[in-house]
Amino acid sequence: MNTKAFCAALLATTLLTSTVLNGAASAADAKSTAHPAVWPAAKSQGLVDAQTEAFVDSLLAKLTLEEKVGQMIQGDLSSVKPEDLKTYPLGSILAGGSSPPLGASDRSPIGPWVKSVEAFRAAAAQRQGGTQIPLMFGIDSVHGHGNAVGATLFPHNIGLGAARDPELIRKIGAATAQETAASGFDWAFGPTLTVPRDDRWGRTYEGYSEDPQIVRDYAGQMILGLQGAVSQGGVIQQGHVAASAKHFLGDGGTHNGKDQGDTQVSEAELIRVHAQGYVPAINAGTLTIMASFSSWNGEKMHGNKSLLTDVLKGRMGFDGFVVGDWNGHGQVAGCTPKTCPQAANAGLDMYMAPDSWKDLYANTLAQAKSGEIPMARIDDAVRRILRVKAKLGLFQQARPLEGKEAVMASAEHRAIARQAVRESLVLLKNNGVLPVKASANILVAGSGADDIGQQAGGWTLSWQGTGNTKADFPNAQSIYSGLKETVEASGGTATLSVDGGFDKKPDVAIVVFGETPYAEGVGDIKTLEFQPGTKTDLALLKKLKAAGVPVVGVFLSGRPLWVNPEINATDAFVAAWLPGSEGGGIADVLIGDAAGKPRTEFRGKLSFSWPKTAGQFALNRGDKTYAPQFAYGYGLTYASKVRVGTLSEKPDFTIATDNVSDYFVGGKTPAPFDFKASPSTAVQIRPVDAGNVQEAGRQLIFSGDKLATVSLIADQAFDLSFQTNAEMSLLVDYRLDTQPTGPVTLAIGAGKLDVTPVLAASPVGEWKRLKVPLKCFQAAGADVKAVTAPFALSTAGKLTVSLQGVKLVPDPAGAICPAKAQ
Question: pTM for the whole thing?
Fold first, then answer.
């Protein structure tokens, strides 16, 4: 290049860099094409070496095209059977958030998980001919190995961000890896390196902070904890697992806090805020990175070549492989879950195709044969996958931790988790009541006091963390149990009364309350006001205050929420986030010694700004209009002399909450749903008692004169495609009052299912539950993108049945799929 051309090129590059990095409102900023030169540089550590590459070369030379394509496909164990692997050379199996082990309950200890892994390995080894490549088993160990009964559950990331302790993060990663490996898995889908910017997002608690600095400080440490040092060679034999930094890129910036939405920011902001955690993660040797469901300025990440290939694999030097998210490739323009060459060509190396894997395999193979996906791209993807499997030690037989029950919730791991709870607590208010004397008579109240499922949150034994009971946590301690153990050791008493009732006036009440479990999508909200409308927890706090009892509020939540009325109704208020399995960590800080002096200091500092109004959705340090109730970094200590006065109880924001999941609950039909009987001459609806509540149910009486239908119907069509893809089910709580005399169908739109056998097998007079996956209705003809009536029960015969509830639920345990109605 001559001097003149070089200078021109240099000037052009300088101008481009200046424009991008200063966030100028240019046309280029509004587009979804990245410019690698302005991105930070990084380099994978320890993944590429001569010995490993020679080994991979020898394997690539042996693999057939069918085997190469198989390496690029990952199916879920709920839809892949071991015998499938005798034919299909898949590269990986995952266990999704609510997928059970083979032939066992979805809430199982490690035994059934290990047996499932062994069954898949054995079947894959029976495939005739070709080259045997070991499977890679992945699972969402996002706050400990949350899928296994008996595991240590660490605080969710939002709490860990408040701890400001990178060394603790590394210890948590190592403990999580050991418990994951003990159950047979060698790949944890974490850490989440998102930087949430709108707290309405249901995944906010998966982020360490609104500030990329904390994410940057933690990312490499968590990778090293999970994986160990990759440069030392195969690491699974040391009890480590592969990490998966996620979700690349910009998931936390989703517009209006909508899950799987669009991050509408300049390239400069995408780099400054959302990319910062990936540099230390790559430098620490993360073996995999997961692509985000979300879009950047309108283009889905699974199909963005400039980011997946040019930036991530090029400028940022990532030598591992990129895995997709749950059917995320199907959201790319022009794609479906069953076919998407665009994603592979953009740089996706392994498709996560939980239930679409078989068709996707066939279509991807055809696209590879035709050249639609170039052979060079296939070979690059497979090379990366084989490289990771080699570095993991999967070609070696040793699995020293696999099946070791003693690893699960070991004393060492529980101590780390308890430390994390102590360090994550943020004291928002203390007007003289804390610490509580250990010799005191304490009343422990609130819905979360003795509910380990609530204190653990989402991604706990099930995808959404719902449906759990205390019996599901044999190695855990509730917050009440921890308080009781602590005070009784010093001569005090702790009495559990969820509703706050008491005979003898206590010295103090500790009320544990907050959000109930949720995860992605389902957890999205429209307002930051806690319990808008109902305020049942506020009523409990006020009742105790009115009785002259000092009140300590312990707030469980996956995000900062507007709780000014609740704070006003307490003498002390602690943000405890989602602390996990070690509820005793709360007592370590709240309970002092017998004289009332602190035993453990409050260390936590807000890593998310706390809202002053219910409408401060995007409230982030550095904003031009930054006006929080409690600023980023706030957190009182016992040495603090700050007294919090009365806060404003005007939310300054109200909104009608969209409801697409609750159709009949608590004796009511929440807007926009209502019952409709058609024709009214052939079916009647009348109130009945249900759940020990007067007239909380509805009895449907079909006369048998003609075909009749009872529907729960909305005033306009709504979209249930997300809920369908997320494996959600229609739950009907019913009581059969008289046996049907003719066929009975349950329908969503045109998707009609025959529930006659279900009703015929139901005992008359007993309340039962019917749970039907939305996919069953879709397969029967329902248009899940335009649903008006999410429940329609029809028969031309005589039938009397009562309903106690009709709603969507995320937990698939116990779901059945009745046959399509003829």
Answer: 0.89
